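> call design_seq(struct)
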């Protein structure tokens, strides 16, 4: 009996007096379609609505996941209290569980969902010390036949959670929207500050690749705390956006311009105060939009290359080869071969004329020390339609034509956009802009995370969120807030 009482007291003492509440926007939905919506019936006003999966399967084949943000000591009780409802009465389960492949459950509970919002609590005890992020709250959705809505989560038992929910006032609420563009409809999420608008807005523009929303979370959170809305969107043909995915700088610019127009049409957004924040390729798109639109209030480029046409591309290739310490005597011949091939492609030369140019480039890449298979792989990366159209990229000229305040940031360990020469090119392009700043963080890579050693992309998963360096987040946040406040 004494042992039982002692354990109960220990568990009580281990229960936090306050709880960390996570907004509904933090739920990760897999296996089905979901949206961010607003609902004043739940604390914070944000919900995540998940449609039933297209085909019912195993319960775990679709679900909602939220990672436990803190570590757990051995024997420590762990609880999650969350809001949920369904369009029609239904039953499912919730659990706190570990990662694949075992998915060991610390706790589980049945959920009887109704159209009325309810609070549910899952409680268990940790069998051993567990690291932050190693456990997740999971709601299974694989066999549901109606829409399920999820609200905020408090990592605490019900009594503590009730107080935490009552005091919960998030900086912003995410809402999903669509943006009409040329032969496509873009799906986006607007992180709208709480309080009274209209609000200034920053539009974040993704880098190269089939990227959807995400990757700017720390920057968006900082902007929201300053009362600045933030829009992110899936590239055309990616995620929930329609159209055909293509890495065409003209179409990417058109899509970003469509996002600007969509924000200016909203009554809750102050269309006179619009900033653009672009990462990598987005750092090329953002100046292109601003150069054509002098009413843009601020531009931030993060690892955006600077150069015009094929000449700019050739210089970027040369910088990468120098940084990779390839044989100096072989660099210019390889760059020249790449340039000759791309110009032939741009001129519409047929395959018979292009074939020997491709072979020459492979041989020149071998001269840089690549094996034949590596050289052929390099050819496949260079000889692509987006590179054929590089003569339409004018990032240096666009930066020079941008009238808004510009912040250009580079990482000294960036293996893709080499900091020293790119920063020098940016300073040259921005020489006439008194409101422009170029910054190099010597110890950061292309993904702007603290802790980079080599700067290689392989390090990214172990270094926290993309664009997550607190120094970069603070610099971008301070710059955007100051620039938008100065807009007439």
């Amino acid at each position: 009996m004494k042992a039982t009482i002692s354990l109960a007291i220990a568990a009580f003492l281990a229960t936090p007096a306050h709880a960390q509440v996570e907004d509904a926007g933090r739920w990760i939905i897999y296996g089905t379609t979901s949206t961010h919506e607003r609902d004043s019936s739940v604390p914070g006003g944000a919900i995540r609505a998940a449609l039933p999966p297209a085909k019912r399967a195993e319960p775990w084949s679709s679900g909602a996941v939220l990672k436990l943000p803190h570590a757990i000591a051995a024997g420590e009780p762990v609880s999650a209290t969350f809001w949920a409802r369904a369009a029609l009465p239904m039953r499912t389960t919730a659990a706190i569980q570990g990662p694949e492949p075992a998915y060991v459950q610390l706790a589980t509970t049945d959920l009887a969902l109704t159209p009325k919002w309810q609070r549910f609590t899952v409680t268990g005890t940790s069998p051993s010390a567990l690291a932050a992020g190693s456990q997740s709250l999971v709601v299974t959705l694989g066999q549901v036949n109606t829409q399920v809505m999820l609200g905020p989560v408090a990592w605490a038992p019900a009594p503590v959670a009730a107080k935490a929910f009552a005091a919960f006032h998030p900086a912003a609420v995410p809402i999903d929207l669509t943006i009409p563009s040329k032969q496509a409809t873009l799906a986006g999420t607007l992180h709208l500050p709480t309080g009274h608008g209209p609000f200034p807005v920053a539009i974040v523009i993704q880098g190269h690749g089939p990227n959807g929303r995400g990757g700017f979370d720390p920057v968006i959170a900082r902007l929201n705390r300053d009362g600045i809305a933030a829009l992110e969107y899936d590239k055309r043909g990616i995620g929930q956006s329609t159209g055909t995915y293509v890495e065409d700088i003209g179409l990417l610019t058109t899509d970003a311009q469509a996002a600007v127009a969509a924000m200016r049409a909203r009554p809750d957004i102050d269309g006179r105060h619009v900033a653009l924040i672009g990462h990598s390729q987005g750092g090329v798109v953002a100046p292109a939009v601003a150069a054509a639109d002098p009413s843009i209030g601020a531009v931030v480029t993060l690892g955006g290359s600077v150069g015009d046409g094929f000449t700019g591309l050739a210089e970027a290739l040369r910088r990468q080869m120098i940084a990779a310490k390839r044989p100096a005597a072989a660099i210019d011949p390889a760059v020249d071969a790449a340039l000759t091939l791309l110009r032939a492609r741009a001129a519409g030369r047929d395959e018979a004329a292009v074939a020997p140019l491709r072979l020459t480039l492979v041989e020149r890449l071998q001269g840089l020390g690549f094996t034949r298979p590596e050289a052929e792989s390099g050819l496949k990366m260079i000889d692509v339609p987006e590179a054929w159209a590089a003569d339409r990229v004018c990032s240096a000229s666009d930066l020079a034509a941008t009238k808004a305040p510009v912040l250009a940031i580079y990482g000294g360990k960036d293996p893709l956009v080499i900091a020293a020469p790119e920063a020098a090119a940016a300073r040259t392009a921005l020489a006439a802009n008194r409101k422009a700043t170029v910054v190099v963080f010597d110890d950061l890579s292309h993904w702007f995370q603290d802790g980079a050693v080599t700067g290689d992309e392989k390090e990214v998963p172990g270094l926290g969120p993309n664009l997550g360096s607190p120094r970069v987040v603070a610099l971008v946040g301070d710059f955007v807030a100051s620039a938008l406040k100065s807009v007439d």
